[in-house]
Design goal:
By secondary structure, the chain is α/β, with parallel strands linked by helices. Helix content is about 45%, strand content about 20%. The longest helix is centred in the C-terminal third of the chain and has 20 residues. The chain has a seven-stranded mixed beta sheet with strand order 3-2-1-4-5-7-6, with helices on both faces. The mean pLDDT is about 90. It is globular. Helix 6 links the parallel strand 2 and strand 3. The protein has one domain: Vaccinia Virus protein VP39 (Rossmann fold), CATH 3.40.50.150. The protein has ten helices and seven strands. This is Demethylmenaquinone methyltransferase.
Length: about 240
C-alpha cells in the first residue's frame, strides 16, 4: 500500500524519498537542535519523556532508536530507562555526527552507539532488541509498511515499539491555529535559521499527509504488531503509539 506521506518529498529532484531525506537532514544537521527547540517551543522534551515512560514497565535492556537524528531520544532514554545499550540508527551521517558529539560530552559513549542504517532494510539480526523507538521520523519513511515490518523482525518476542509523531489537531480553534503554526511559523523560522530553504516547507506538508490516530493503529496491526494503542499530547499536536511484537 502507498500512503500519501510517502509521496511528499523535500525536493523536486528525481531521487527517491530516502535519498532526498538523507540530503535534507545532512544539510540542516548543524542547526537542527536549535531549530527543533525553537519550533516546538521545547515541548518535544516533555513529549519524549512521556513516550519513554510508557516503556518503563518492560525494563528494556537493549533498545533500537530508529531515525535517531542527533540522538536526543537516545540520551533521554538512557536517563529514564537505564538500559545496557542503545543503538541509534539513521540514514544521515551529518545528524549522527552531531549525536556522537553530544553522547561523548555526556560520557555515554560506552552505552549509546550510532550506525548508518536504512530502516527499510535493517542489517540487524532477528529478535535482537527488547524495545524500539522512533521520535518524529516515521513520516519520513520511504515505505511505511516495509519499515514497520523490519522493526517487528528485529524486536524480540514481547518487545515493544514506541512511536512519537507530530499530528494535526482535529477541532476548532486548535485546527486553525495549527494551520497557521505549520504553514507560516515553521517555514519562517526554518528559513531564518537554516541554510536549507526547502526543508521546513517539507515538514508541515509531511505532518499533514501522515496517517494518525486509529489509522496508524490499524497500520501497526496490519503489519504484525499486537496490542497497538495511541495517546495524544498538547491538544493533539503530538501522538504517541505503543505496540508489541
Amino acid at each position: 500500500m502507498t500512503y500519501e506521506a510517502e509521496k511528499i518529498v523535500p525536493y523536486s529532484s528525481g531521487e527517491n524519498k530516502g535519498a532526498q531525506v538523507e540530503k535534507m537532514f545532512d544539510s540542516i544537521a548543524e542547526n537542527y537542535d536549535t531549530l527543533n527547540r525553537t519550533m516546538s517551543m521545547r515541548l518535544d522534551i516533555g513529549w519524549r519523556k512521556k513516550g519513554l515512560s510508557m516503556l518503563k514497565k518492560q525494563n528494556p535492556q537493549t533498545i533500537l532508536d530508529i531515525a535517531t537524528g542527533t540522538g536526543d531520544l537516545a540520551i533521554q532514554a538512557f536517563d529514564i530507562l537505564q538500559p545496557q545499550s542503545i543503538l541509534g540508527i539513521d540514514i544521515s551521517e551529518g545528524m549522527m555526527d552531531v549525536g556522537r558529539q553530544k553522547v561523548a560530552k555526556a560520557g555515554l559513549g560506552d552505552k549509546i552507539s550510532f550506525e548508518k542504517q536504512d530502516c527499510m532494510n535493517l542489517q540487524l539480526p532477528d529478535d535482537s532488541f527488547d524495545a524500539a523507538m522512533v521520535a518524529f521520523g516515521v513520516r519520513n519513511f520511504e515505505d511505511l509498511d516495509k519499515g514497520l515490518k523490519e522493526i517487528l523482525r528485529v524486536l524480540k518476542p514481547g518487545g515493544e515499539l514506541m512511536i512519537l509523531e507530530l499530528s494535526t489537531p482535529r477541532h476548532f480553534p486548535l485546527k486553525q491555529g495549527f494551520w497557521l503554526y505549520s504553514k507560516v511559523y515553521i517555514p519562517t523560522i526554518g528559513r531564518l535559521i537554516s541554510k536549507d530553504k526547502t526543508a521546513y516547507s517539507y515538514l508541515p506538508k509531511s505532518i499533514e499527509a501522515f496517517i494518525q490516530g486509529k489509522d496508524m493503529v490499524n497500520t501497526l496491526l496490519k503489519n504484525g504488531f499486537q496490542e497497538a494503542s495511541y495517546k495524544t499530547y498538547t491538544m493533539g499536536t503530538c501522538s504517541m503509539y505503543l505496540a508489541k511484537k
